[in-house]
What we know:
Layout: H1 2-16, H2 32-46, E1 55-65, E2 72-80, E3 86-96, E4 100-105, H3 130-134, E5 149-152, E6 156-161, E7 167-172, E8 177-182, E9 185-190, E10 197-198, E11 241-248, E12 253-255, E13 275-277, E14 299-304, E15 307-313, E16 319-324, E17 330-337, E18 342-349, H4 352-363, E19 376-378, H5 386-398, E20 405-408, H6 429-437, E21 442-446, E22 450-452, H7 456-463, E23 479-481, E24 484-488, H8 496-503, E25 520-524, E26 544-545, E27 549-550, H9 551-574, E28 584-586, E29 598-600, H10 608-623, E30 629-633, H11 642-652, E31 657-660, H12 676-691, H13 693-706, E32 711-712, H14 714-717, E33 731-733, E34 738-740, E35 750-755, E36 761-763, E37 773-774, E38 780-785, E39 793-796, E40 799-803, E41 819-824, E42 830-837, E43 851-858, E44 862-869, H15 872-877, E45 882-888, E46 891-892, E47 896-900, E48 903-906, E49 908-912, E50 915-924, E51 929-933, E52 938-939
Parallel strand pairs: 19-20, 19-31, 20-21, 21-25, 25-28, 28-29, 29-30, 30-31, 41-45
Antiparallel strand pairs: 1-2, 2-3, 3-4, 4-18, 5-6, 6-7, 7-8, 8-9, 9-11, 10-11, 11-17, 12-14, 13-16, 14-15, 15-18, 16-17, 22-24, 23-24, 26-27, 32-33, 33-34, 34-39, 35-38, 36-37, 36-39, 40-41, 42-43, 43-44, 44-51, 45-50, 46-52, 47-48, 47-51, 49-50
Amino acid sequence: MYFASILVGLTYYLSICLAVKEYLFKTCENSGFCKRNRELGRNIVKDQYNFESPYQIDASSIRIDEAGGTVDFDANIIKVLPDESTRNFPLKLSLIEGNILRFKVDEEGRDGSLEGVRSKYVNHRRYNETSKWAFAKTALNKELIGNVEYILNESQLIIKYGDARQYKAVLDFKPIKLAVLYQDEEQLVVNDKQFFNIEHYRNINDDKSKHLSKYEIDYNMFKDDFTDSKNDQFPLGPESIGLDFNFKQFKHVYGIPEHADSLSLVDTTNSALPYRLYNVDIFEYETHSRMPLYGSIPFLTATKPRVSIGVYWINSADTFIDINKQNPKEISTHWISENGIIDFMIMIGEKPNDLNKQYGSVSGYATLPQLFSLGYHQCRWNYNDEKDVLDINSKFDQFQIPYDTIWLDIEYADKKRYFTWQPENFPDPARMLNSLDHTGRNLVIIIDPHIKTGYFVSDELISKKITINEPNKNQTYHGHCWPGESVWIDSMNPNSQSYWDDKHRLSKSNKFFGELSTNIHLWNDMNEPSVFDGPETSSPKDNLHYGNWEHRSIHNSFGLSFHESTYDSLIKRLSGTSRQRPFILTRSYFTGSQRTAAMWTGDNMSKWEYLKILIPMVLTSNIAGMPFAGADVGGFFGNPLKELLTRWYQVGIWYPFFRAHAHIDSRRREPWVAGGEYTDHMREAIQLRYSLLSVFYTEFQRHSISGNPVIKPMYYENPENEQVYSIEDQFYLGDSGLLIKPVTDEGVDEVTVYIPDDEIYYKFFNGKPSQETVQLKKPAETQFDVELKDIPMLFKGGSIIATKDRYRRSSKLMYRDPYTLYIAPNKEGKAQGQLYIDDGESFGYESGEFVAVNFNFDLKQGLKARVNTGSKRYQDSIEDVMIEKIVILGGSVAQGEIKQGTTIKSIQVEKQGKNVIIKKPELQINNDWEIIWDKTIRHDEL
């Protein structure tokens, strides 16, 4: 059996290992529900002057519910069929706190009494539980009625909202149309093209002419001609939904990851493949492609000067999004999902980050991660045994390269059976974990949802009836994955949680998890789910989950349910320890995944074009509310040239999740393998990441309360400058003021950086101050010479960051190291910045155990630090953490004095060219202080 499982895995690899085989995956043209809706849209456009929508809102059905001090609008949508019969679709329109409009439509009569359903097990309802998985666990707060004005007449409903009633929603009843306005200008029109479509229930024996209008086609309504999907039973027949959203006077739209494509989404009108959201296992995916990848976040945003708007499509089924940029005055998008209800939110604000805050208020923000997880992760498929792991661990120290985590892929498990170890290679996991813990290092192991048949875990899953089931007998589904024949845990079944908890418990008897070890964390891979012999390498869509919901309804949220189940188990495992925050990496993700996991972009290749495309991919993930994102440094497949590997490390240090990974057939490529200057430059890059850990951690904390991206596109910083809207090769590290322009091409000796405004920018290559500045009268490009050692960085005037510059072996050993402040005065001679500190591993910060420092610099007055904390005990615990150096870029100073508490002393000043160094100020980071100049600092650029 073991050799059979190897054969299955090898066959899978050979079938698709050279490059992604597009014929294995559907396009819109061979996907029944997409083709039907796309053709409907095309036919409507062709006959737009004669077309009359079969849908209208029954004005007499409108009910206004003001219970509880909020307001909801309920109504009935009527669909008139060709035979003049009708179908009813209940509508609910709600206002959510934070200027969010929600529009929700279900189908009446789907309560279990349908005739002609071709399954005695399947749930008859349209799937309406996506929000259960996608939304944060706290209840949504509806907008108070006092903040809303509305007018209802026979033809439309008008709602005014926002602090100054600056937003307006106008719902027309016939034809149905929803317009959202800002300051009385249309920004978004829903159903502008009348593509609203709900394929109502009908059975296979019904007369088609009674259900299909002349604009519709019947392609694959009750069957699937796609080669690998011919066994799909479609027990409920066609259930698709479709709707258009037109963005007025916008030129760019963003989001809807995951695709290996540009930051600003492209026109798809003449393509067989719109952007597709369907979580699949794709090896060696292509760049500049709209093919689906491992994750799906159905959140699309648009930005222009003065206003940003977003559409969040709350649906976990297979989804296509067409983007039409043919009209220079608008961008039209057509959303098509295989089934479920129509449920979407419209979010609007004046700045791009307003949308992140709104989206996070619904789906949750990323939980503040353990600090170690922001350090460097070393992974490959596979490290062979305990000796190999500890040898790699010691070599990092030998070459003075900091790192925090080593990873084990599937080969650690005995015959790929999760919750077991290969006894000859890993005889004592607790001993290995303790050795790593000695220097603050961690271990991550892989556990996937496929469970090999014929051993205790799969036997228990089957006996407890917590597996994904096949449709005919509603019994455990069997498919193939890495171990060979496998079953899949149904993590959407609430009864599976207690079982998963038991497998992850903290106990002396739990030898698998190293007994009482707390430095072991998890990698949930293959959770799309990947099924080697399934259609599109995934689960058959008519498989059944808890509640008898079809897999087609929940597909994109399954991976989320799996890593959330793991997270809940680890929360319980670690709750009584000091290291309470779990770390989980997931490959499959959905709206809400940001709450509990990091993600990476999957199986990339060791080529320059992948290094380049990964920047917009990670930026897009941040736009879509999933900031803890990264990519395999060096490329998963192949053997990168030394220059490429070096440049990849110099880019990878900016990924919020920073991990090197490689395929089992790739040569060893740890940073010391290349040798010479290449190893030197990789070491320097990793050390720079560690010096900036305090900056990254501060940005993650900022995200955790506001949704702010950890790395953000240029247009977030300069939304008034439309020239930056399509820039995808340079970006900011959050609100730190650090502007990064990585080198992503071979043999480069010069980089071009776009300066987006007239502010001062200080050259800060490799994280080191220089004597060069750039200040342009208007936005323009500027050039810099670069060598292989260089990481092009600029520091924007008006910013302050706090770094830790001493080499340590891991982040844990840096905890009490001193800080260096870097101050970049703006053209007015001012700057500000923040630093957030907590213990980096517990949830104590939720009860106030943190220190937040605000720095303010003024050329004419001085430098101040103001500390906020909710715990005097924690504040006192870091009284020995100091600021050891202050660097003021582009300034000079004569004398001044420091005041902290009752202590007053003179500053020690050293001038280094245009920069000022204040040495050994001996300032405690945990208390207020200020430096007052005796004489004015003269800013050399003023």
